[in-house]
Amino acid sequence: MINRMGFEKLLGESGKIHGHLCPGQVLGVRMALYGIERVGIDDPKGKGRKKLYLFVEIDRCATDALQSVTGCSLGHRTMRFVDYGKMAATFINLETDQAVRVVAKEEAKDMAKKYLPGIEDKYRCQLGAYKIMPDDELFYHERVFLHIRPEDIPGRPLKRVRCEDCGEYVQDMREVLKNGTTLCRSCAEGGYYTHQRYFYSSRYAEKSQRSVLFCGE
Hints:
- With 217 residues, the chain is of the alpha+beta class.
- The chain folds into two domains: 4-152, CATH 3.30.1330.130; 160-216, no CATH class.
- It has eight helices and nine strands.
- The strands form three sheets. The protein has a five-stranded mixed β-sheet with strand order 2-1-3-4-5. A two-stranded antiparallel ribbon has the order 6-7. The chain has a two-stranded antiparallel sheet with strand order 8-9.
- The longest helix is centred in the last third of the chain and has 21 residues, at 196-216.
- The radius of gyration is 23 Å and the shape is elongated.
- Residues 211-217 have low confidence and may be disordered.
């Protein structure tokens, strides 16, 4: 178990990466330590760095802390983001296949006052209390089973293909086969963006339609 000095060092490093120290950072550092201990990894950035794989379920402050402590990241392909909006993460030991999902308890926010009753500001109270509250008041965990696909494991891309619509290349088997045509996901399913040429042509058509309606009136 990491000592208080070690914890404060991890918290400081995490705060530098995140840009400030907040309750989410404290919770994330505590969650990271709690999770790696339960899958049997005690040195995630050293001898255990190729053993640990992480799923995070929220894109908030705690996720930066989880990355800072564990060394897992999207770029290293050792972290996966699943957009559930939950303060939770799943830690996997790739060597032993142990997997533990850790969830932050919602009631910890209110319990913080019990530990630091003299601090009126809720934010500052949680910031201090999360450092000293027992693990079982901050988190609960469950053993889980999951399958990590070969194309999601760290290493060189298993496949690289060209989208037959936009012409851009797709790695790691993210392509979609639709009616015998190889497409990227944005072409096959619609992307999170709109191509500028389509945006302006649709705006022009909409404006022209309004003008015709106006003239007709």
